Each structure stands twice: as structure tokens, then as C-alpha cells.
Amino acid sequence: MENIDHQRRLALATTAAAALGGAAAVSGAATLGGGAAPGETVNPSSAARTPRMQAYQIGAQQGIGSLARVDRVAPTPSAGEVVVEMRAAALNHRDLDILAGRYGGRKPAERIPVGDGAGVVVEVGPGVTGVRRGERVTAPHFTLWTDGDYDPSIFAADAGNTRDGWLAERIVLPANSLVRIPENLSFEAAAALGAAGITAWAVLEALGRIKAGDTVLTLGTGGVAVLALQIAKMCGARVAITSSSDEKLALCRKLGADITVNYRSQPAWHEAVRAANGGRGVDIVVETVGASTLSQSLAACAPNARVGLLGALGGPAPAPPNLGPLILNNVVLKGITSGSRRNLEDLLRASAANRLAPHIDRSFAFDEAAQALAYLASGEHVGKIVIRRG
Questions:
Q1: Are residues 165 and 201 in the same domain?
Q2: What pLDDT is recorded for position 24?
Q3: Does residue 119 sit in the same domain as residue 82?
Q4: Given this model, what pLDDT does residue 312 score?
Q5: Same domain for 121 and 209?
Q6: Looking at residue 112, which CATH number applies to its domain?
Q7: Domains held by the chain: number
Q8: How far out from the chain centre does Cα 277 lie?
Q9: CB 181 within 8 A of CB 282
Q10: Res. 181: pLDDT tops 80
Q11: What number is the average pLDDT over the span 274-290?
């Protein structure tokens, strides 16, 4: 259960909504480097004025070892686009799968990975209004999903997957995908609240209709699970969380967890959760593992509970899930595929209003991207891992 990767009713009343960061205006199109990438021809007369940048590419997709740092031409915005200078990027388990060629098929070797990040607008394309240089911004990794219901077409513009991501000095994004970062949130916090935060928010708020006094169950101590813990506590809920590590569970208690269960020492963890909750089941489950734990998650549910199923990182179930509790307790089970720009905007506003600081286990420098990914793969982390610049 470790390594788990994968809006309107909350008390969002705050005068800080949509507040801009205090960053000073940043000049655009500065030269970031020099020289040609392998196989690239540069006109000597124009090389000196061609903006360049450092970036990472996924290469042959044989794992972390395929990650390659390169010098390449910096992106320029087309109509409706902006260029953002990256200040922080946050890792998710899917970044490992993309580097290993296991996420929706192989990508072009020059694809820039990592779907979550935050930075400063440095260049604005033709026709863009309402966005200025110097603004502090982030964006959902599904850059075309601005609002409304999920549609599979959003995968056509998935940062770090089907389009270039944040592991570069600059990234080009649709202007209408941007979310301004509230003043009291750092670049690192905004990046950490990306895919994992949106996903937890989609389960807790949109599906779960969370309210004070609810009991939330989340599995493991990866990015989604720990953000689900923090967001649920922000909303006044009780939280149960599982792990195979007593040390990690101790940290979760410091973050506010009310019920902690070691699933290795207590294999019937669903019973332990119910017992610790006075015999009553839980109201919302952030099911980060998948089919292999679904039977126990359903067995932990109270009547009318809501379960958000996020992925299948736990592998296939040893037997078909027992769906009896789903019917007997009138449980709602729904698959969740991250969320929209509106979800991210609401989450950032709520986080700023309630001064939520997402738990960042460790930050790495831009030069240490491979080490950051190796640390993610180790499973030793609790919460989010961030790569920062500047």
C-alpha cells in the first residue's frame, strides 16, 4: 500500500480568493543557455539570440536510467498560450511508469516528464488576455479539462504524458489552464497540490460531500493518501489511515490522523478501523490501492458511504472483490481520474483560506531529478516529493 500514487460546499469564504502572488514582473525570453542539442543544426548568425533552456527527456523509457538532461530551444507561445518559468515540480508515481514505458504506451524520446508544477509567467502569446508576465501560476496536468464532467479526450493534452511537462526550465501552457497561486502558498505547496491534491479533493468534496464529523479512510502514505488526510482534517473530519510502517503511522498522527492501523500486523485492517471508530463504518474511502483491497474497503463502510477508486497500484485481486457490502450498505462506488482546473482552483482557495501546508517529505534541486525519482521509487517517503529551481 506504500508508493501510492494515484467544490462548492466547503467553507471557502475568504477575501484572499484568487489572490495573486507578490512576485515582481519577470522579463521574458532571456537566453538560458547555449550550444546545440545532439543532431540539432543552429544558424550561427541567430544562435546568440535564440532562447535556450535546460530540460529532462524520458529517452528510451527503460526506467529512471533513461532520464536525460539536455540543452534545447526554449518554447515560445502560440496564440492562446503562455510560457511559464518553472520554480517547483512535484512527482507522482505515474512519472515512474512513464519513464518505464508502462503508462499508456511509449512516448517520443524527447518528451519532458512530470505533470505537476508551478512557476512565473514570462511570456504571453497572441490573443491572451487576463494573464500578465510576473504572475505566479500553476495548472492541472490535464490542461484541456477546465471544468465540468470527465471526458477521455482530456488525455490528448496531459502534461508529462501526451504533452511536455514541468521538468524543464520553461513550459508552454494554454492560458485558460492557468490557476493563480494565492499569496500565502509557496511554489512548492502549489505544485504538491496538483494531481494528488485534485484527486483527493474530487473524492472528498465532489463525490464524498464531506462535512465536519464524517470519518474518512485513506490507504497508504503516498501523495494522494496524505493529502486526503490533510484535506479531510481541514474540513473537520476524522481520518483513519493504513500503512505497513509504524514510523510512518506515527508521522500521520502528527499530521492529524485519528485512527492508524498497520496492515501487516493487523491483516484484517478493515475490522480494526471499524473497532477504533466505535464499531461504526467510515463515511468516505479514498481507495488508492485498487482491486486488491477493495473488498476490505467496502467492508469498512458505513451505510450510504462513498468510495472513490483511484487506480490499481496494488495489482490484481487474489479473488473477485466481495461486492455484498456495496449493496447491503447502499454504498456509492465511483472511479476517479484526477480533476479539472476548477477543482484545482477551489482546492488552492480552500488551502489558502485554511492555511493548509501540504506535507512535503523532501525537496531536491533541479540537478538532482534522477535522485528525486529514485527516492520516490524507494517508497521511503510520506506525502509529496518536490524538485525546485531558484
A1: no
A2: 28
A3: yes
A4: 73
A5: no
A6: 3.90.180.10
A7: 2
A8: 29
A9: no
A10: yes
A11: 96
Which range of residues forms the domain containing residue 56? 44-181+359-388
305 lies in the same domain as 205: yes
Q: H or E segment at 56? A: strand 52-57
Digit-coded pLDDT (tens) for 52-66: 999 999 999 999 999
- What share of the chain has pLDDT > 70, as a percent? 87
CATH number, domain containing residue 305: 3.40.50.720
Q: Are residues 121 and 87 in contact, defined by beta-carbon separation less than 8 angstroms?
A: no
Q: What is the pLDDT of residue 221?
A: 96
Residue 308 maps to a domain: yes
Q: Please state, in angstroms and rounded to a whole number, the distance separating the CA atoms of residues 199 and 39.
A: 40
Q: DSSP for 353-369?
A: HHT----EEEEEEGGGH
CB crowding 331-350: b at 16 or more within 10 Å, else e: bebeebbbbbbbbbbbbbbb
Q: Does 25 fall in a domain?
A: no
pTM metric for this prediction? 0.86
| 308 and 250 together in one domain | yes
In a domain, 342, yes or no: no
The CB-based long-range contact list for 371-379 (8 Å cut-off, 24+ gap) reads: 372/91, 373/64, 373/67, 373/91, 373/95, 373/96, 373/99, 374/64, 376/3, 376/91, 376/93, 376/95, 376/96, 377/3, 377/64, 377/96, 379/2, 379/3
Which triple of cell numbers denotes residue 240? 483513519
